[in-house]
Amino acid sequence: MARVEITKAAIKAEAARLKAFFEAQGALPVEMDILLPAEVLLDLYGEDIRARAYMTQDPERGEMMLRPDFTVPVVQEHMSNGAEPARYTYAGEVFRKQEDMPTRANEYFQVGYEVFDGSDPAAADAEVFAHFANVLSDSGLHAATGDIGILKAAVAGLKTTERRRAALLRHIWRPRRFRALMTRFSEAGTTLRLQNLERVRANLAQPEAPFIGLRTQTEIDMRIEALEEDASEPPISAGEIELLDDILSLKETLPHVLSQLRDITVDLPAISEAVSLLSRRTEALAKRGVDVDNLDFEASYGRTSMEYYDGFVFGFYAEGRPDLPPVATGGRYDALTAVLGQGRSIPAVGGVIRPNVLLSLKGGA
Amino acid sequence: MVVKLGVPSKGRLMEKTFEWFSERGVTLSRAGSEREYSGAVEGIKGVELVLLSASEIPRELAAGRIHMGVTGSDLVRDKLASWDSKVIEMAPMGFGHADLIIAVPKAWVDVDTLDDLDAAAAAFRARHGFRLRIATKYHHLIREFLKQNGVADYQLVDSQGATEGTVKNLTAEAIADITSTGETLRANHLKILSGDPVHCSQATLFKSRMAHWTDDTRATLVTLKDMLGLGD
Question: Which end of chain A has less Cβ packing within 10 Å, N or C?
Fold first, then answer.
């Protein structure tokens, strides 16, 4: 199969077209630096971003990073200079190493649309999704949606210790570890929890080793306390584990999911607010002309790829083309603004389109 | 055209490699003085010995500048992205054994497993305001391993030598390094996390997928494989 070469000029023109569309919807165009201070991004995303981003050293400014995405600089710009409500659009290159998929571009365009408007989150979610659906409507893409807020609410409502809830919440974006924690905190993990504590007691009985490093005795004592608590507390009930499993496996069209979630709410009232938000979002989507009856919803969607998305999530994919990355992705990231704002948080939702992928579908189909 | 064979240029790794080949009827030797980095091959025609630093052999294989090479399996996996698309493992050679492991202070009585490390990292970050630091030179392997195991809230800091000393020097909280006996770790009051090592390394003969092969070199390779007892 001959590969259709798409010129950078064509990609830029497509990016400009998409950006003009978002401007017509009322977004303010913004420009962001390409060289960003690395510290904030490294602290946010850790080693995941170090593996993917190009780093360099500036004698004056320290470690710098070639822009791996626009979200963080746009949020920072808005938090220091913007007034609410605000809608932004941008278009430009991002840079990502592709160690695992060397055939994918390591330098590509993104066109984004970001909404900072806390007045009606359901409406803002629907607005972003509807704009993306409209501008992508003639490309025959498949849309996937999810809502991490429902899983978060379910975990926060578990009748168990604060420590266990916090541990599960922390690993919502790492499904394998989340699953391991669920098992450890359930009936099946009772022996394991006792063994963990016994192991520490055995270590304590050994001759004391000299204390080295920054981690303090207090931190070790607190961890032992946590293990003692974990060993003595009753497990998370089988019923609650089952409810979590039910939520994790939800994968249906939106109306079906909604009705199943309403059933689950009877046993897990903690999710009722999140479910009502999903219901209001569904209405808002319908009002904007989205065919919600046939819109796919998956409760686990967006858990692996999008840490800090903590509510509505969506993606647009070319069906039958698993070789291509998603054409567009987005979601709500209130948690990200909370981390960047050091306490101050701004309701935020947005997404990006990859014009090169869009063009490769139009040209190469 | 000759088959270029890259071999570590000094130390035990070189000697053991020479021995391994000589047991199979291929005599490798350094030409001229001890200090000259070129070699001779006897017992087979059409093979050229290239003496290189063990850490450069993965890169030379990936670039196709050598057809075959001997180096640690840990180096190939760490230094080459998608290593198995660039080189083929022809034979583990049975020496140069070392495990890539993660170690923490022995005084951490609450940490033995990756689970523990993850929990300790979460609390450490909350208390100290930065991610728990792991000193290593094996960035790729360690990052992939910790990702697979869902460990969060850590960062890797680069350490090209004397890695076991970084914890005492307060530049890291834990380390990831290769060890064969564990003696240096114990001497520095560190203990290895339980469970399987990140990688069990040994000296390995690799073939480059990127090198240019001609009818001549392919024929030489067949003869060589035959002598080394490596069937297809």
Answer: N
Residue B175 contacts A where some CB pair is shorter than 8 Å: no
Between A and B, how many residue pairs show a Cβ–Cβ distance under 8 A?
A: 107
What's the pLDDT score for residue A332?
Answer: 95
| Of the options 3.40.50.300, 3.40.50.920, 3.40.190.10, 2.120.10.10, the CATH number for the domain spanning B98-200 | 3.40.190.10
Q: Which residues contact B120 (CB under 8 A, 6 or more apart)?
A: A215, A219, A223, B104, B108, B110, B111, B132
- Contact between chains at A46 and B189 (C-beta distance less than 8 A): no
Kindly report the pTM of this predicted structure.
Answer: 0.88
CA pair distance A27, A15, nearest whole angstrom: 15
Identical fold between B3-97+202-228 and B98-200: yes
Give the ipTM of the model, two decimals please.
Answer: 0.86
How does residue A2 score in pLDDT terms, banded at 50, 70 and 90?
Answer: very low
Residues A149-197: tens digit of each pLDDT: 999 999 999 999 999 999 999 999 898 899 999 999 999 999 999 999 9
Contact B105 A211 (CB under 8 A): yes
- Residues 128-157 (A) with a CB less than 8 A from some CB of B: none
CATH superfamily of this structure's domain B3-97+202-228? Periplasmic binding protein-like II (3.40.190.10)
Q: What is the per-residue pLDDT across B108-159, written as a single tens digit (0 to 9) for each?
A: 999 999 999 999 999 999 999 999 999 999 999 999 999 989 899 999 999 9
Best residue of A44, A47, A164 to probe chain B, by most B CBs closer than 10 Å: A47
| Cβ–Cβ below 8 Å for A211 and B107 | yes
pLDDT at A365: 42
Torsion angle of C-alpha atoms A226, A227, A228, A234, degrees rounded to 10 = 90
